[in-house]
Amino acid sequence: MSSYLVPIDFSKYSNIALDYAIARARRRKAKLILVHVIVENFLAAATAEDSGSAELMAKAQEFARENARKVMRRLVERKGLTPREYRAVFIEHLDAAGAIAGQARKSRARMIIMGSQGRSGWQRFFSGSVAEATLRATHRPLLIVKKSKLAKPPAKALLVPIDFSKVSERSIKYARAIAKAEKETLVLLHVVTDSDRMVPFYLRQNYQRAVVKEQQGRIKQLARRLGIAPRQYRGIVVRGRDAAVAVAKEAKKLRVSMIVTGSHGRAGLKHLLLGSVAEKILRYASCPVLVLQK
Predict the structure, then answer these.
(1) pTM of the model
(2) Is the residue at 222 inside a domain?
(3) What tens digit of pLDDT does each residue of 33-46 get?
(4) In sequence order, what are the beta bridge partners of 38?
(5) Same domain membership, residue 279 and residue 195
(6) How far from 229 is each of 224, 225, 279, CA to CA, in Å?
(7) Contacts of 4 (CB under 8 A, 6+ apart)
């Protein structure tokens, strides 16, 4: 039986992700692995100079363990999960993202489904994001679920941003399998960024039309090569200065049920300077985002 790993921190964000995971698991007859990470520095208790402080920290850690199990039991009962549908795992670790990634690998989870608080600006710069940290720590597909502000139900469509790389081809194949199972349509989206800065102003309009037409032709060729029939997808080309912002905007406009995107797996200084389009999509998109690792 396949399984989905769901990090649980008892916040409204993980509650939203859990509801999504339960519905998906029941459709696919998969088991849920509910993971709660106790991230308090319980190791410091053993090395503290003040024995009173060490004892107090040990008691606090024990209270955290007991409370986590109690709250998890209430959560499972409230969601109506049976023992056959889930397994609860409690981990004491200083690095929540590392613990989640490690448990997903150990459990051979098919996918990680988690909520995101959606921090931005200076708060995100200092606090970071467990979702983004997990994205960097794991090689498993990661599905981020956010609370959508859309009043109407989403369209039966999956959006796949493509740049004609091997990574985006893998995303199309993965999304196609989901679309077939869920009876949804694929939306293949290519974003043309500012490539016309050196083009004279009086030639830009015709140049832009030519670029869009060319990219639409490339989408058709790609779909044909991957064996996707015209009735199974829509090919869209849009222009935008920031690819991630354009993807999120188009997803909201089309009311898609999910964005499926690949990650090129940048690391080190290159990642620090350039960031990741996948991570940016996670921040800007309001619908669920499934990131496939390289």
Answers:
(1) 0.80
(2) yes
(3) 999 998 755 445 44
(4) 92
(5) yes
(6) 7, 10, 31
(7) 21, 24, 25, 30, 31, 32, 33, 109, 110, 111, 112, 113
